[in-house]
């Protein structure tokens, strides 16, 4: 028997109504300070929500506050056989911590769903991979046994490992490299998490080493899966020093782009150097006029205009 039923067949079937969608609230009684009972969800709420999910319409999953209501949503989605609905409900339940920090309970339920539903013929392979990866993450969280990581996303767990276990080698449970390999975290995601974690911790040496490599001749080259202008902007937002910013800006191959970013971020040394190499005395003079008199960058511009040879910009007046 196919798990996928026609829309009208499912919504009109008594089996679906009594088994998948029929449940009571697990909280009853009176509201504090009031004599009338607390409002409970009606049985129609769950099937209506499921129908909206299946048809791709907007719906509010937050209306389902009780554990039984959330379980009813999941059971109903499995009974329908709609993979998108199942994943949507899983994501919602993960966000609201359906079972608190009970990783064992959540792991058991998702594993059962993978076995009973996602192993069926015709199931979307990508959806099955997503659920399998989530099971591996829950297994990792269970082995780590750190309550602050329960029900956290893969990238949040990676950020924790980068901040607290950066120097642990591959193969160790808490190593960032181990988690990346297990969860198949992309290189772009890895670079972005490491950049943000260590920049916020002011570990600038780690940030710089992440994106620089030595070639066969001992020269330092840039290596990143993130666009260079994005790295520079993010470093500036996270209060990186001008020396580090200048190092990255100097890696931009396009002179015009390098000059624009240096002006935007006020890395004056790069602007002065670039204008000098362009032999643009007029532009450098105008730029000096925008600087604070007698400041370090003002003096640098003045010395460059006055004595380009000692400033290593000997081509300025050719």
From TrEMBL:
UniProt keyword Metal-binding present: no
GO biological process: intracellular protein transport; vacuolar transport
Sorted UniProt keywords: Cytoplasmic vesicle, Endosome
Cell compartments where the protein resides: Cytoplasmic vesicle; Early endosome; Late endosome
Domain of life: Eukaryota
Coarse class of the protein's main subcellular location: cytoplasm
Gene Ontology CC, one term: late endosome
Protein name per Swiss-Prot or TrEMBL: Spermatogenesis-defective protein 39 homolog
Species: Eumeta variegata
């Amino acid at each position: 028997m196919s798990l996928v039923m026609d829309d009208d067949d499912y919504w009109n079937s008594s089996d679906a109504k009594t088994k998948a969608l029929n449940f009571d609230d697990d909280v009853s009684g009176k509201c504090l300070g009031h004599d009338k009972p607390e409002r409970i969800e009606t049985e129609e709420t769950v099937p209506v929500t499921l129908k909206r999910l299946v048809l791709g319409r907007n719906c509010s999953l937050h209306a389902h506050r009780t554990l039984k209501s959330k379980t009813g949503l999941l059971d109903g989605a499995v009974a329908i056989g709609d993979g998108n609905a199942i994943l949507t409900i899983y994501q919602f339940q993960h966000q609201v911590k359906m079972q608190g920090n009970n990783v064992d309970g959540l792991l058991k339920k998702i594993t059962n769903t993978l076995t009973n539903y996602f192993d069926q013929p015709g199931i979307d392979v990508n959806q099955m991979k997503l659920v399998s990866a989530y099971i591996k993450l829950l297994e990792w969280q269970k082995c780590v046994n750190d309550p602050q990581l329960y029900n956290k996303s893969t990238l949040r767990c990676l950020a924790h490992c980068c901040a607290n276990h950066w120097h642990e080698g591959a193969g160790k449970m808490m190593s960032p490299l181990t988690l990346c390999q297990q969860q198949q975290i992309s290189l772009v995601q890895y670079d972005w998490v490491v950049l943000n974690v260590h920049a916020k911790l002011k570990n600038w040496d780690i940030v710089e080493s992440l994106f620089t490599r030595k070639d066969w001749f001992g020269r330092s080259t840039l290596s990143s899966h993130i666009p260079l202008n994005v790295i520079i902007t993010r470093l500036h937002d996270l209060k990186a020093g001008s020396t580090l910013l200048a190092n990255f800006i100097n890696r931009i191959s396009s002179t015009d782009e390098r000059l624009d970013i240096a002006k935007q971020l006020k890395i004056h040394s790069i602007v002065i150097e670039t204008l000098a190499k362009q032999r643009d005395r007029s532009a450098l003079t105008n730029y000096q006029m925008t600087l604070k008199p007698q400041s370090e960058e003002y003096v640098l511009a003045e010395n460059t205009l006055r004595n380009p040879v000692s400033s290593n910009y000997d081509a300025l007046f050719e």
